[in-house]
Amino acid sequence: MVALRAGALGSVEADVGPRPSDLTVRLGRPGDLPAAAAVLVGSHAMALATVVATDETTTPDHDLKVRYVFEPTTPGTPDRFVTLLVSVDSARPEVPSLTTAVPAANWHEREMQDLFGIVPVGHPDPRPLVVHDGWPQGVFPLRKAFDASRRVPVQPAAEFPHLVAEGEGVFEIPVGPIHAGIIEPGHFRFTSVGETVLNLEARLFYTHRGLEKRMEGLLPLDAFYVAERICGVCSVAHGLGYCEALEQIAGVDAPPRARLIRSIALELERLYNHVGDVGNICAGAAFHYGTTTGMRLKERLQQLNERVAGNRFLRGLVIPGGVRLDLPADLLGVIAATLQDTLAGLDSLMARIEANPSVVDRLDDTGVLQHQAALDLAVAGVAARASGVDRDARREHPHAAFAGPEPPDLHVVTASDGDAMARVNVRALEARESIRLVGELVRRLLPGPLGVALPEPLPGGRIGISAIESPRGEAVHWLRTDASGRVERYHLRSPSYHNWPAVVLAAQTAIVPDFPLVNKSFELCYSCTDR
Amino acid sequence: MLRILLNAFHTGVVTTRYPAEPSVPPDRFRGLPVLRPGSHLPPPSVCPTGALSEHIDGGRRHVGLDVARCVFCGRCAEDPWAGAITMGRDFELAARCRDDLRIEVVADDPAVPAAGPASDPAAEAAHASSEIHRVLGRSLHLRHIDAGSCNACDWELTALLNPVYDVRRLGIDFVASPRHADGVVVTGSVTRNLETAVRRTLEAIPDPRVVIAVGACAASGGIVGESYASAGGVDRVLPVDVYIPGCPPRPEAIIFGILVAVGRLDARRPHRPHRATTTGSST
Ligand code: SF4
Question: ipTM of the predicted structure?
Fold first, then answer.
């Protein structure tokens, strides 16, 4: 980071933190931001991990702050976050937009404009993102002065502006937010000529529940139950990410047995998601044997979850300080037997898919995400790895069992084609890796405590940051306590948040009828994007 | 092709017989919390969703549990309150009336059993043989609306169509268009950004129609509650016919609720004495 200090900016103050391995650079003025970001992204090959805005007008600083958090992208680089910290005048809340130079900043900037009223000056597409039609001007719900329980009346609004193409044979297909199947709500507007997609716009944030605001002011131990429920199918990952951020603030470490059980839970979550996703993709290709086989295998795993955690989504296993439930020998036996059957079932399903030209044909070369686009958008998880980006937060930001002195082996699966087939293959191989990993984690289990107590009250004014490899990729959690040790601000950047713009890009290489395949091959969450 | 047939043959029948045969959840399953009157019941602040409440009446402490709000986290049944509340294994919790999901005990008097407000049996019977049952009979085609759920309830609705639950065997199906539907299953607390879409979808369904609120968020606002972004439950926006508690409700619990909606099973009633004494594993 010496280069940053000596770079285009002259010397800047850099502090260690939030974690001992991290750096926080306070920029003198918001205008320094583009140059500082260019140094990190350019000379240091870093990518944008998350952007967190905070309202600190009631603190002695009397300002708004924006933290742009970057992370290294070269495999094997030590775990480190670099935060560029900008103080924003609340009377004139403006920051220069990074989106043109750092495309991954796009939605982050629009979100802080909607929720904090911080204007990203020069943003190429400053339309509202999180708040929808009829939201009154000048009302910013994540400002501290906004009363969390306040209902805001819906005002009459014009139709949301979108790109309109005109010409012979050009037509628009609006889909959603309520869909024909049992899926989450989003609005997709295709502009097409025949079946060729000219443009696709995805409008999300229909499931914005205001959960980050909901958590503010709560005791961190209570807010955990909200974090665990941000997303159903990422319950373990998000619950764990919140816990690890909180444990940093508390200055405690979960004991070894608890970490192993946390990692086992994380892999069981990845497994039921991945196996279900492989089945789901068959639905998009009208291969019903594959669909029902995937459903059956997933169901078996969710029944296993219920035996392990008392909940089919593994809620109630991970808690702050450790885990709530142990894994006794009889349950370990059940897990081993179920995973063995799952492996056989998955192998057979993949063999049927590969032997079925009508499925393979639909997936090959469909919805291609270029390697460079995946890097520019800071795409995460399966979608990134299927486009040749060798990144996995279990290795890059070790957590749970991986944070110990002798981390388990991890085989990170990548592919280069970037199409739907590559994403299906990566998923299937990762599911196998999860099964192998659970076996290894179980072998390492030694008797020991399941948790540590957190101090009460928790230390005030501290920041915790964590990154967890959820089934959909890296999720970044940022948590800060107020002076009394309650939640002052919590922010989740889910992998889907960075991946949705990639779906749009990939879909533009496909034909309209293939969109379900493209979408299912990314398999993103709406609820953890929208929060 | 032959492989596929062989595989299918080898797999055999995996479908459950629920509700003809009962479903027994595993030991660790967290169902309806059982409050024990007379013991040391926890303060309401223990509950992360505000499902527990208390008030003093006639000098005695009354503790209430709103089952619709409960997310079955098990925290109120942990030390130091273990024993005062235990997590039961009852999951068939659907009710036609929001008030039927409120349980109350007098904390310091073991003589007073757990009770909800007195239900009106006549009204209940009238409801079950209502217009809905007369017109729709015993089969129900439903449209799903995600009104801002975390996706867990949605996945459980999808699970109803998997080979294990296969609700089509019970005459229940999910349809693509509201015009083809007899009613809706709604998940999520109804976000501000979806409120209009939710109303319009219901309006597109011909009368009579049923509205089933699935999961804690839909039934009561759940852990999301009411805020700038959330209405705080489906009944703030639409009249609800059946409430299905759970976070999320397991698939059998949803089947139970849907069958209650068509009058094929009886709803959960406040005064079933065995519910107050059910002992479940508190794991
Ligand atoms: S189990 Fe239900 S009542 Fe008990 S603390 Fe959890 S949400 Fe509250």
Answer: 0.88
